[in-house]
Amino acid sequence: MNKSTEKTRATKLPYYIADTGHFGIPIKVCFNDAAFQRAVKDSKITTRHQSLDVGLAESHFIEQDGTTNAMLAIVFNYEDMAKCDALERLGVIYHEVSHTVTHVFAYIGEEESKIGDESRSYLGEHIFKQVFSIYATEEDRRERAGKRDRETFKQAGKEVKGTKLQVDQLSDGSAGSDSIPQQPSVPSGTKDGDRSAIPAADTGV
Questions:
Q1: How far apart (Å, rounded) are the C-alpha atoms in residues 41 and 29?
Q2: Whole-angstrom distance, CA of residue 59 vs CA of residue 48
Q3: Residue 150, pLDDT above cutoff 50
Q4: For the chain, what is the radius of gyration of the CA atoms?
Q5: 121-130 confidence digits (pLDDT tens)
Q6: What is the 3-state secondary structure (H, E, C) of the chain?
């Protein structure tokens, strides 16, 4: 995990950040539209933008007219991506990184025809490694969260089962002594000090 990913997780943002080296504009990597909307807001973009209308993933380059505010983002539909096999997921990540490389050069005002193969390849490799690591980190985070949820559900089931066993033991149909101490009964209709009626005690379990 790179330093940008660690920093993002430490501040608990709903998205991750990949860097573009000396080009200086970060890439916000999101896994749903809610995270994307937060990224737009954090980039001080006030125009409306939507993500994931169609497809598994999208790359975005947003420049707000009349301002210096700009944002690069890659947005994955995690739930749909999870249905793909590993090779397909790698292909999607590569595809969006390729678009993002073009966006980086557009951001700095470099014409497409003047970009050398080596410059594009090095930048693409630099970004791909980060985005791949971010995707793997998100997979791991969700897997651990799912495991915690399953363990919590399993524990709740044990507790419910244990409670049922205790109730069954207390309600075995015999006339034996009750293991739950009984409070002195209060006759129905008894009045307390302010003359209001005290309801009869409910002895049901």
A1: 14
A2: 16
A3: yes
A4: 30
A5: 999 999 999 9
A6: CCHHHHHHHHHCCCCEEECCHHHCCCEEEECCHHHHHHHHHHCCCCCCCCCCCCCCEEEEEEECCCCCCEEEEEEECHHHHCCCCHHHHHHHHHHHHHHHHHHHHHHCCCCHHHCCHHHHHHHHHHHHHHHHHHHHHHHHHHHHHHHHHHHHHHHHHHHHHHHHHHHHHHCCCCCCCCCCCCCCCCCCCCECCCCCECCCCCCCC
Place of tokens 């003047």: 114
Q: Please name which of 142, 146, 145 lies closest in space to residue 32, comparing C-alpha atoms.
A: 142
Cα distance from N-terminal residue to C-terminal residue, the chain: 54
Instruction: Specify which residues 16 forms β-bridges with.
Output: 29
Q: Is the pLDDT of residue 89 over 80?
A: yes
- With the C-alpha atoms ordered 57, 38, 128, 110, is the resulting torsion angle positive or negative? positive
Residue type at 118?
E
Phi, psi of 162 (to 5 degrees): -65, -40
**Residue 86 identity:** A
Greater confidence, 134 or 115? 134
**pLDDT number for residue 197:** 39
